[in-house]
Amino acid sequence: MDLRQFRYFSQVARRENFRKASEDLRIAQSALTRQIQMLERELGFLLFDRVKRGVRLTAAGQRLLERSQYILGEVDRLKETLQIEAHVPSGPASLAAPPSIGRLLFSRLAQTFLQSYPKVQLSLLEGWTSNAMSQLRRGELSLAIMSDPPPDPLLEYTRLFTESIYLVGRPGDSWLKKRSLEVKSLADLPLVMTSKTNRTRQLIENSAAREGARLDVRLELESPETLQQLLLSGRIYGLLPYSSIYHGAQTRRLAAVPIRGLAITRYLAKSRSEANSIARETLEKTVIAEMRELAKRVGVRERG
Q1: Domain-located, residue 304
Q2: Residues 200-209: what's their mean pLDDT?
Q3: Of 152, 281, 295, 299, which is the most buried if we count CB atoms within 10 A?
Q4: Is the overall model pTM greater than 0.70, yes or no?
Q5: CA 270 – CA 110 distance, rounded (Å)
Q6: Statement to judge: residues 151 and 283 lie in one domain
């Protein structure tokens, strides 16, 4: 039994598929299967049940996964401890953020890490709140920026800033010439929104429901580029945080008016159980600093 077998086993458990795990690990599937079988023989019990489309952990396998992740984490922490004296962040670190934030943040983060922390293997991913929460719990992400996430005992949140929700459409539209709008006035307008699983949409619809307004959602769309094209057609409106339309509003390609009382708060989330590596700590501090600057750029109001 060795660390390599533990890493192989953990990857198969995460992917629930030998072929996908072997591709991730860049080894032959037959070699991976052989290593897992050797581990099972040494332990004296099966680690996986074979199912139609892959494998699933047995009860014993689940217990081994928890212990092996702890052992691998201890080994990684030992490696990093040996690097502390040099104060050189290294190793993997990852961040997920909603697309609207990612477009404004990721390039700046990438430049900072390429220049100042070249030994950090940085992954920057676009992802919605619900998906990011699951990935944090599974240990697949270091950090995630989320929109008003629900309480979770496994996660730790740092509040970043609050931004208003805007009605967005083509310049010159009479609705968009007002200083602001009430939530209830949205019931008269055809809207395009993200899918119902999107946290921002859920917050908007809940707020509208409290005001007795039923939103007329004609289209569901995830592509920011296609969304802007539709908004410019003048046939439909969007409800978006200002960060989503920052560039369009600055260049006057889009017009927008804030909705009174409708806002979302951005949080930085991390797992309470994951070891606080130097790379994650560096990424966390950098993200918080960049988000404070971003708050000034996009004209949001920060909470104290």
Answers
A1: no
A2: 86
A3: 295
A4: no
A5: 20
A6: yes
